[in-house]
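Repro:
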Amino acid sequence: MKKFGLLLLTALAASTLPACNNDDGGYPYNYVYGIITTVHTLGEGDYYFERDNGQTLYPSEKPSLYEAREGSRAIIYFDLLEGLPDYDYNIRLFGVEDIYTGAAEVVTTQEELDQLGSDGAGFPTAYWEYFNFTKKWLTLYLLYPVTENDKHEFAVIVNKVSAPEQSEEGYLNLELRHSAGGDVAGYTLGYYVSFDMEPIAAELEGKKGIILRIDTRENGTKYLKMDLPAEQ
């Protein structure tokens, strides 16, 4: 799962869908893709997916048991079908893996800060540069000991209570907070977490990017600097 997950992050960062092209330049129908998307519902059980670059994917062939939730984040596994009007891609959907979806927030009081978790979470240092950051979403791949993953909660905050230890002009300081929720520590596993950045749009206005503080379990506090993508 970890190795495949890192490949997915690479695909997420690419400007187009990953593929091995046929000689004629078309996509092979026997190749299964995996990318992170946002889920959008259409009513009556219908739905489509949106990539962070705005491309849309409609599953004209889909599993019958999947229940879409508007605005949730998910890894989708699919291959490509013939084109479809109104969508960038027409797909055959094989499976959907929901990932943790939260929202960035501004914390202004010590009471709010105390309610947030302080459990550490690591990340694969050789691949952190593949973390995806846009004005809309921040997506991370985190490592932490887990037995029941649904007990874990995450938050990304603008800390207005205490000054950051590391800052840079033009960059917004953020903190990752993690609560294990009383989960009994098991094997260290890797999972995606994704945060809606729109609630802190005013804080991001005019910024070049962010400096994200992550308190890790084994390597102390780490700071990751991420630039916003260039405007298209």
